[in-house]
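Aim 2 progress update. The chain analyzed this quarter is reproduced below.
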Amino acid sequence: MLKIPEYYYDGTFTAFQPQLTAGRSPQSVAATDQLVTIGEFMTRSFYVHRGVLRFYILDGSTGSEKTELFIGPGGLFPLYSPVERQYRMERDAFLVKAQTDAVVTPLPQRRLADLLATNSALALAMLRQYADFSSILLYDAVILATQDSTTKVCNYLYQYEQLLKPHGIVLTQAAMASNIGLPLLTFTRVLQKLRQLGIVTTARKTLTVTDWPALIQRCSPELLHTND
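Predicted structure tokens:
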């Protein structure tokens, strides 16, 4: 089965929890708590026991936020970053926040480096997750550059309904527009068209796909054919 780019992941590191969290105390964080702040290099990773974290990019000139990835239980983020290499983009624009109430175990990147050097199975899991993470970043870049607004919105609604809402991730229309990379006005115009076609219904803080075949027809091909 071919894997489509996904805005949510969990469970990749569940089997490695004993090694990752040994001797370290879990911490409770509340929804919207900041785990990685502006001006801070990602020197710690967070193993998620419960709840969901959000990785997003902050536009310093406008203050807008674009979410790239949600991380659920058994997930680890930030992924390993070589401690001898620090990237200014990481410090200036990459942030991590709790999307919901969560329980996490902070893990220094130096400890993670030691574990990866001695555990080949963990290193392979990290490599696979990096491949998936790179895929979603590349997918976003390609979609932003090549697809029209309707396709962008339908692609995101597909993922929102299939992957995000089932994990308790509820987003406003403004947040979805920002995540897609569209002005809110453009997003609402596309949504209005989809409503008129009977493809979606909206109410206060809710959005529901009511005609899946019609939505999928307006998505890009990689969401339509997931079997090799």
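Helices lie at 17-21, 88-93, 109-118, 120-146, 149-164, 173-180, 184-196, 212-217. The CA atoms of residues 81 and 109 lie 7 Å apart. These observations will guide the mutagenesis experiments scheduled for the next reporting period.
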